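Amino acids appear as letters; backbone shape is given numerically. Here is one record.
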Amino acid sequence: MPHGLYSNGGRMNKKIIAFGEIMLRLNPHEYYRFSQADDFAATYTGAEANVCAALSLYGCSTEFVTAVPDNDIADCALQTMKKYGVGVSHVQRRGPRLGVYYLEKGASQRPSKVIYDRRFSSFSYAQPEDFDWDEILRGADWFHFTGITPPLGDRLPEICEEACLAAKRSGVKISIDLNYRKSLWNTEEAQAVMTKLAGYADVIFGNEEDAEKCLGISAGCSDVIQGRLEHAGYEASARKVAERFGCEKVVYTLRTSISASDNKFQGMIYSGGETIFSRSYDMHIVDRVGGGDSFAAAAIFSMLRGDDAATVVEFATAASCLKHSIMQDYNLSTVKEIEALMNGDGSGRVQR
């Protein structure tokens, strides 16, 4: 699949590098529970891989950097990246296995469940000498990774910092999606690492909960579990993050979970001392996983395109809304489809 197939006609002359783990996703078909499943659908995914795939389909040049084993399963994972036009020329072959996660899709009041099987994966064995970041980032415009990556291996916080230092030397913009995962580390561990890495970021993605867990910054009385969100709390949190870490922009998602099947969804950007909230969407969810990655990818694309802050957050929110209607982790929405939704066409009528 060539670059730009899903874009508005042609390539964008921008290059994005992302660093993280690619995994095998196994899920029962439809809404079956694990206990009902006789077989599982197999796909390949990961937070940073999702971002690369979306940006490639928008017409950007992308390169996904990771470590995978030297076997047929890893070959399948890399072929998925190539299918969507993502470069894999800096992927390292080392270690014993590809990480796996199992997904049981929720419905109505039954939540989705994710079970990780990624200990001792090839990526967890990555070493600083595996990656020549000055070479990898040569000619790049943007570097992206998430808070999922540092806790996956003993040397990964160091590797992420070396990548950030190389990006700074080369004038490459850096974005971090905080993405706190309690199954990977606790808040003390997260803050010890992420408060250091956040100091390199030009753009920080996340939400108020991520900022509290990863950066120790809390504000307001929002409760994402109870579905109680306060705009003032999100604005205060983003302002504190920007002031403490000196980043240009803080971009948050706001999600009200009515059930596993229906959410309200909105975006917010803090830039230049100003806070802008996007329109809010009522979403009926087909596949929840990858929603945050699609938001980050679309925001990066919009920023690289030179859009103003209001357009960035509207484009990112509309992109993520559409992703929730698409099976599996990748956002296969076109730029034209995203812009149609952000400009008001959310009818879902058949296009003929």
